[in-house]
Structure formats: C-alpha cells, structure tokens
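#struct-pred

JT: dropping the chains for the assembly here, can someone run the whole complex?
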Amino acid sequence: MSKIITINRQFGSGGRELGKRLAAELGIAYYDNEIITQIAGRSGLAEEYVNSIVERKPIVYYPITIGRTFLAHTPQPLDFNTQIYTEQHNIIKELAAKSDCVIIGRCADYILRDLKPFRIFVYADMPSRMERCRAKAPSDEKALTDKQLARYIDDIDNERSDYYKFFTGQKWLDAEHYDLMINTSGMSIKEFAPALANMIRIKK
Amino acid sequence: MSKIITINRQFGSGGRELGKRLAAELGIAYYDNEIITQIAGRSGLAEEYVNSIVERKPIVYYPITIGRTFLAHTPQPLDFNTQIYTEQHNIIKELAAKSDCVIIGRCADYILRDLKPFRIFVYADMPSRMERCRAKAPSDEKALTDKQLARYIDDIDNERSDYYKFFTGQKWLDAEHYDLMINTSGMSIKEFAPALANMIRIKK
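RK: done, full complex below.
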C-alpha cells in the first residue's frame, strides 16, 4: 500500500524536522521548499514572491472602480494566489503519483484526500516553540523580545490557519482531519521519529 | 521517571482497549470501572447511581423556594455530583501516588496535571465508532438503527465533553491539553499498542 504522509504544523513545533526524519526512516521522498521552486519555475513568478503568498490567506481587493472594463485586464493579487494554488495543487498531485513521500503543509492532506494519506499535525506549547525558533532563527528574529517572538509565531500560524480554511473549507486544528496529532513539547524528535515510523508502518 | 498515562476517548473509539493493551505492554496498572466501585464504597451511594453521574455534566436545579431554609437540609443533585467528583479526585490522586498506571477518562489528565502524565485522546470517525459499538454492545443497543446509534454516540460524547468542561474549565477536544491524539479509524489497536508503548517509553 502507498505511503503518503502529510504534515501540517505549528510554526516552531519541529514539524519539518519530524518530516525529514520520518522520510529517512521510511526511505521515501521529502517535499517542502522544492514545491515552491517548482511553482516559481512553472508560473514565471519569482520564488521569493511565491513563498510570500503560499500558506497565506489570499487578500481580496475589491476594485473600487467596478464597471470600468480595463480593470479586467490588470492581474489582481487574487489571480496570482489562485494561479499559485492551482500550480501547487498540480505539483503535489504529480509528486504523490510519482512515489511515496512526506509533504509538509500546503493543504496536501486535503489535495491528496483520495489517496488516503497518513495525516499528521505537529504542535507544541509556546515556550517550546519559542525555544526552537531561537535555536534555529536567523539573527534578525533572534533580536525579538519574547513577547514579539510569541506574537510573530501566532501571526504565522493564523496565516496558515486562514490559508487552510480558505482553500479547503476545513478548520486547521480539527482533530477529525488528522490521523495523529503530536505535541512535541519537551520531546526529542530524533528519538521519537523511529518509533513513529514503526507506528505508521503498522497503520498503513 | 513515573509513567502515568491518562486516556480521554470518544465513545466507541477503542480508548479502553488501547488503555488496557498499553498497561499490559508497559507492565503498569489499569484503572477504569475500579474507580466507580471505590467511589460507591466510600460515598455509600449505589454503584449504578455513581456510574450514571460520573462523566455527565451536573444538572443544577435552582430551588424555586429560595429563602425557605429547610431546603438547605435536603441534598440536591448537585451535592451528590460534587461529592462524587471530590471522591473521584481523591481516589485518582491516591491511585497515581501508589504506582504507575493508565487511567481512563474522569478528568484524570487535569486532576493529575502536577505529575505531568502522558495525556492521550482517542477518537475515530462515526462509521468506525458505530462498527465498534455494534460489535461490543449489549443486545438492546444492537437493536438501534444507524441514525439512532449515531445520535446515542454523540449524546454520550456531549455529556463527557460537558462534564470535562464543568470540572476543568477546559475544552475536551483542545489539542493543547494532550500529548497525543490518535484517530483509530480502520486501525488494529492490537497491532498499534506495542508501537505506541515504545513511543511513550521514549517520550517520558
């Protein structure tokens, strides 16, 4: 049976580390930023721009001058969003069809629902997420106060949650959309990943 | 380090089976209906009556005749509820102090929070829960139509959720109160329990 594993994750919870380790344990592909690179390649949009849009809720600007037809020819932000989501949708389907894999975020759990992926949600309490961020963050994020960092983490998660809701109609944190929800607070992901891989081998 | 495992579970999701198997794998005690028996013994209330109250939200009857002091001497349903919750609270604390154990439901995750138990929530989709109920149910439950059974399951879970909210102030289904949330739909709990036991050995 195929092994497609999707991982949604709170920012700073170690979802990517868990995903990479799971993929290594199970000997399957791992996709994260590779998807962004491919979208940029296909859409002709800059990688940085794609990255700034993906997993953020589209902002819909209502044209003030509705009825002035020349506006129809100017690409609006929502067009780019939809274009990127469509490319992402196609790329994720192609990757999953090609081989077993772990895919991080990007509504892959919803896009691939017909393949019955093993759907994981990774989360952690705020102190653990802050600690992980500080250990891994670029220097400008390190300069944030605790309060600013907590706010920054919450903002990113709210964007992910809104994005997920917008494109799937589902709530990001609803247990019913997942097979397993894992709280990584105080956990060694390195030690935990092999045990989880065993569990997934059994469940599939 | 101590191994206290608490399991909250949707009705029909296999939480008890998982709990029993985990306790066997880890070689620790398992507490479920034993708690009811002890409450009954200590409170002098019938076991059946205790069972009908535990994990149901207390119903508060407001006396219509407030101010008539003789009412203060008549035990009200809320008194029994509080008495039972208090006994339960004490018994769960005593059991956890005595030895490592698995405790099913009864707000044990909240009551024992200072001991940092490993907190599991077990759930499943409705078809899986109905199948499990039909396989294990007494004959009168077997006579229910699918619609009636789904309603019955939802009613029990609503009661558990209300009870939990009433005594802990927390939402039953909030991921942040758990270390692991497991969807048992289509899963062999017998095969899964040893892998989970390994994971818990690592995390503690």
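JT: nice. Residues 61-72 of chain A have pLDDT under 50 and may be disordered. The interface with chain B takes residues 121, 123, 125, 173, 175-176, 178-183, 185, 187-188, 191-192, 195-196, 198-199, 202-203 of chain A (CB under 8 Å).
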